[in-house]
């Protein structure tokens, strides 16, 4: 059973109530044990933050000197902090990185540059699409972590709050007015979900 939720400050995004059972409690036969579950979380989160950092690098390569450059640099700097944190966790817990990192290196930059070349609104639409998927992903992780993994859960929730700020920034900068917004958002969102699934497992 999923835990109850309280509401995020904007009334739209639920905040998970910390679970009291240990991580992995209630797992069914065939489900990963607690250690494997946490390793998958760290692996996919490191991959996701790496991909996000590359997206912003791609956008900055096109838009860095424009009026939105400072905004993108601010979001990119936060993603670098997230990435460094997960890099340290991987070393401390001896978690292997995803074998797909070279793909995310290229794909992330290409997505960022391509949406930036479509215009600032498309670039912001990309941010909204990616950050909404990361929000859902981080929320599910926080729900699955017990008090034995409270520091990891707190880190994920802190980063999740910053990802939501990025989403809100994208919306404030005209993401929904991008040409073909719904289709663009759907495609990028689907790609993000596929990347999450693959990075957890490979």
From TrEMBL:
Primary localization class, coarse: membrane
Composition-biased stretches (Basic and acidic residues): 1-11
One Pfam family recorded for the sequence: COQ7
Reaction(s) the record says it catalyses: a 5-methoxy-2-methyl-3-(all-trans-polyprenyl)benzene-1,4-diol + AH2 + O2 = a 3-demethylubiquinol + A + H2O
Cofactor: Fe cation
Family: Belongs to the COQ7 family.
Protein name: 3-demethoxyubiquinol 3-hydroxylase
Taxonomic source organism: Tistrella arctica
Upper lineage: Bacteria, Pseudomonadati, Pseudomonadota, Alphaproteobacteria, Geminicoccales
